[in-house]
Specification:
With 616 residues, this protein is of the alpha+beta class. It has 3 domains: 193 residues, Heat Shock Protein 90 (2-Layer Sandwich), CATH 3.30.565; 136 residues, Ribosomal Protein S5, domain 2, CATH 3.30.230; 193 residues, formyl-coa transferase, domain 3. 33% of the residues lie in helices and 23% in strands. The strands form 6 sheets. Strands 5-4-3-6-2-1-7-8 form an 8-stranded mixed β-sheet, covered by helices on one side. A 5-stranded mixed β-sheet has the order 9-10-13-11-12, with helices on both faces. A 4-stranded antiparallel β-sheet has the order 18-19-20-24. Helix 2 packs parallel to helix 7, helix 10 runs parallel beside helix 11 and helix 13 crosses helix 17. The longest helix is centred in the C-terminal third of the chain and has 20 residues. It is globular, with a radius of gyration of 29 Å. The structure holds adenosine-5'-diphosphate and magnesium ion.
Length: 616
C-alpha cells in the first residue's frame, strides 16, 4: 500500500465530472439550467461539431460580479442554498455547486459576465492549470453571462473515446434544449449548430403560444392528436397534453414529464401513465405526452441523483393514483365528436382551451381559464344520448351480453333527423363499402368507420360493464396452490386480501413466508396464476397498486369481443349502421378498437374540395 495523498483539486473535479458530465449534452443541460436559475428570459446556444469542439451559451440573466467568478468555478460553491432547510424547499434547478467546476476540469472554459445594467465593463474568468487557478480580466459584456466550453474532454482521452458521431451527440444535445424549452414557455431559446439556426423559439404566455411551442418541439402531428388536460386537487396539479391512443409510437421517445418544472424520468410516473393507457394501446406501443405535475416542493426529494433526473415522492402512492386516475378519466372520455386538433366539432377537453375553457377531468367541472369556476356542468362531450331520439340500450342482463350485441339488426333503428335537429357527431349512414367500411355524412363532411373495429370496442366495453355488474365469476381450486414468497410479500398480500377477493382471487397467508391460492376467476383457469400473483405483489410493493389481474381479465374479454363482433363482409342495413354509429358515440374509448387502431376517421368538405382542386 502506498501512502494516502489528498487528491489535487483538478483530479477531484474530474472524478466528480464523471457523474455530471457524460457528453456535450450534459454540459448544455448544466449551463442552461444555470441561466434559467439566474432568471434569464432569453438564451442563445451556439454549438460546433456536435458540441465537442464548442458550446457557447449566452443569457440575459442576473450575471455575476467580478469577485464571484472564481467562486462560481470552485467546487461546492453555490448561491442557491445555504442550509439543509433550504434543500428541502429547493426551487432552483441547480444547488450542488459542482457543475461549473466539473466542466472546467475537463475542458477549456471561460466565463464572461456582468451583473450591472449601467453600461459598465464585465469580467472574464478562464480556468486552466492543474490546480485550477482562475485568471480574471475585464471584458465587455451586457448584463448576463456567457459560458464558453471548448474542446470537451481534451485532457481525458478515455472519456473522449466514448463520444459518438457528431450527429448523435448533437441529437442528444438538441433533446436537452427541447426539454428545457418545454419546461419554460416564458423564455426565448435559440439553437445554432455549425453556424445554422435550427430553433428559434419565441417566449409565449398565452395558451395558444404554448401550444405552438409544443407543436414546434414535438411536431405538429402530435398537437393535432393530443388532448389538453388539467386536473387539480388541493396541493397537487397535473396539466399538459396527452396523445390520443391512435397517435401511439413504437418507441417511448415522445414522453416529457416535468415535476415542478424539472424534467424527470421516473419508474413510478412511467407506471402510472402506462396503466392509464393499458386498455387503449396495442401491446408494445408507447403513448406520447407532455405533462406537468406541480406539488409542494417539500413533497419531493430532488437530491437523489447527481444529474437530478430522478426524484423521490414523499407519498408515492398518492402521486401514482392521482396521475393514473386523471389520465384514465381523460382517455375514457374520448369519443367521436372529440376532434382535438381538427375541425371545430364538439368542444372536447382538448379543444376548450382555445376559448379559455378547461374541463376538470376528475370532477367533470368546467372552468374558465384563470381559475374562475362556472360550477359543475356536464362535460359537453357526454351529451350524445339525446341525439336523434336514440336511447342507449341498458347494460345487458347477466349472461346475455354476447347475444345482445351480436345481432345489430334487432337492436334499434333510428328515425331520420327532422328539421332543426342537429346532426349527431358521427352523422347518418349513407352506404357500406366492400362490407368493411361504413360511409356516413355529418356536419363536417364524410365519416368513414371501420365496422369491425368499432363494433369490437363497443362489445368489449359492454362486456366490461356486464362484468362489473355481475361480478367476476370465480371458482375454488381443487388443490389449493402453495406459493413461497418473502415476508414482505406475505404482509402485502394480507393487507390487500380484499382487493384480491374483489377480483375473484382468494389468497390466504399460510406461514411466515408462504401464501396459498384457494380460488381464482373462472376465466383465468388456463393462466399462470402463480406468476400473476407474484407480479401483482411486486406492483403493490413498488407502486401501491396493480392492475395486472384486471389486465388479464380484460384481455380475455377483448378476445371474446373480437370473436363476437360483426365480421367483415356482413351486409348491414342503413338503420343497423346508424345504430352502430350511435353506439360509438355512447361508448367510452370508442375512438380506438381494443388494439389501439382507430375506428373511424373524418374527411372534411374542405379536404374533399382540396382533393378536387375546388374553390381555387
Ligand atoms: P449550482 O448551479 O449547483 O449552484 P454551478 O457550478 O452550476 O452550481 O454554478 C455555481 C454558481 O455560479 C451558481 O450557484 C451561481 O451563483 C453562479 N452561476 C453559474 N452560472 C450562472 C449564470 N448563467 N448566471 C448567473 N450566475 C451563474
Ligand atoms: Mg448549476
Amino acid at each position: 500500500m502506498s501512502r494516502i495523498l489528498l487528491l489535487s483539486p483538478r483530479l477531484a473535479n474530474q472524478i466528480a465530472a464523471g457523474e455530471v458530465v457524460e457528453r456535450p449534452a450534459s454540459v448544455v443541460k448544466e449551463v442552461l439550467e444555470n441561466s434559467l436559475d439566474a432568471g434569464a428570459t432569453r438564451v442563445d446556444i451556439d454549438v460546433e461539431a456536435g458540441g465537442s469542439k464548442l458550446i457557447r451559451i449566452r443569457d440575459n440573466g442576473s450575471g455575476m460580479a467580478a469577485q464571484d467568478l472564481p467562486l462560481a468555478l470552485a467546487r461546492h460553491a453555490t448561491s442557491k442554498i445555504a442550509s439543509l432547510e433550504d434543500l428541502e424547499q429547493v426551487g432552483s434547478l441547480g444547488f450542488r455547486g459542482e457543475a461549473l467546476a466539473s466542466i472546467g476540469s475537463v475542458s477549456r472554459l471561460t466565463l464572461t459576465s456582468n451583473d450591472a445594467d449601467d453600461g459598465s465593463q464585465g469580467s472574464c474568468a478562464a480556468c486552466e492549470g492543474r490546480e485550477m487557478e482562475v485568471q480574471l480580466k475585464p471584458a465587455p459584456h451586457p448584463r448576463g453571462t456567457t459560458v464558453e466550453v471548448r474542446d470537451l474532454f481534451f485532457n481525458t482521452p478515455a472519456r473522449r473515446k466514448f463520444l459518438r458521431t457528431e450527429k448523435t451527440e448533437f441529437n442528444h444535445l438538441e433533446e436537452v434544449v427541447k426539454r428545457l424549452a418545454l419546461s419554460r414557455f416564458d423564455v426565448a431559446f435559440s439553437l445554432r449548430h455549425n453556424g445554422r439556426v435550427l430553433h428559434n423559439l419565441k417566449p409565449g404566455h398565452s395558451q395558444a403560444e404554448r401550444q405552438r411551442r409544443v407543436a414546434t418541439v414535438c411536431g405538429p402531428a402530435f398537437m393535432e392528436q393530443a388532448l389538453y388536460i388539467e386536473t387539480e386537487l388541493p396541493h397537487i396539479k397535473l396539466w399538459g397534453w396527452v396523445g390520443l391512443p391512435t397517435f401511439s409510437r413504437s418507441q417511448a421517445d415522445l414522453q416529457y414529464f416535468f415535476v415542478n418544472g424539472r424534467v424527470i424520468r421516473d419508474r413510478l410516473v412511467a407506471h402510472a401513465v402506462k396503466q392509464a393507457y393499458r386498455d387503449v394501446l396495442y401491446h408494445g406501443r408507447h403513448p406520447a405526452f407532455v405533462l406537468y405535475l406541480e406539488l409542494d416542493p417539500a413533497q419531493v426529494d430532488v437530491n437523489v441523483h447527481p444529474t437530478k433526473h430522478e426524484v423521490r415522492f414523499r407519498d408515492g402512492r398518492a402521486v401514482h393514483n392521482f396521475i393514473f386516475s386523471s389520465l384514465h378519466r381523460a382517455l375514457a372520455d374520448v369519443r367521436p365528436g372529440d376532434n382535438p386538433g381538427g375541425t371545430d366539432g364538439l368542444r372536447a377537453v382538448g379543444d376548450g382551451v382555445e376559448d379559455g375553457l378547461l374541463v376538470d377531468v376528475a370532477t367533470g367541472e368546467i372552468r374558465q381559464q384563470g381559475g374562475l369556476s362556472l360550477g359543475a356542468q356536464p362535460v359537453p362531450a357526454r351529451g350524445f344520448a339525446d341525439y336523434g331520439g336514440y336511447r342507449a340500450p341498458a347494460a345487458p342482463a347477466p349472461g346475455q351480453a354476447m347475444e345482445q350485441v351480436r345481432d345489430y339488426g334487432r337492436l334499434h333503428s333510428l328515425p331520420d333527423a327532422g328539421d332543426g335537429q342537429e346532426v349527431p357527431p358521427l352523422g347518418y349512414a349513407l352506404a357500406q363499402l366492400r362490407g368493411i367500411y361504413i360511409l356516413a355524412e355529418n356536419a363536417h363532411g364524410l365519416v368513414l368507420v371501420d365496422m369491425h373495429a368499432a363494433h369490437e370496442r363497443i362489445t368489449y366495453e359492454r362486456l366490461k360493464t356486464a362484468r362489473s355488474q355481475e361480478g367476476i365469476r370465480s371458482q375454488p381450486l381443487l388443490v389449493p396452490r402453495a406459493v413461497a414468497v418473502s415476508q414482505r410479500e406475505v404482509q402485502v398480500a394480507g393487507e390487500h386480501a380484499e382487493l384480491f377477493r374483489g377480483l375473484g382471487m382468494v389468497v390466504e397467508v399460510a406461514g411466515e413466508e408462504s401464501l396459498v391460492i384457494r380460488q381464482i376467476p373462472v376465466s383465468l383457469r388456463d393462466s399462470d396464476v402463480e406468476q400473476l400473483l407474484r407480479d401483482v405483489l411486486a406492483d403493490l410493493i413498488e407502486f401501491g397498486s396493480s392492475d395486472r389481474i384486471e389486465g388479464h381479465l380484460d384481455e380475455i374479454l377483448s378476445t371474446m369481443a373480437c370473436h363476437g363482433s360483426v365480421r367483415a363482409n356482413r351486409r348491414l342495413t342503413i338503420p343497423e349502421m346508424n345504430a352502430l354509429l350511435r353506439d360509438m358515440e355512447e361508448t367510452e374509448r370508442s375512438g380506438q378498437c381494443n388494439h389501439g387502431r382507430p375506428t373511424w376517421t373524418q374527411l372534411s368538405i374542405e379536404e374533399l374540395d382540396k382533393l378536387f382542386l375546388r374553390g381555387r
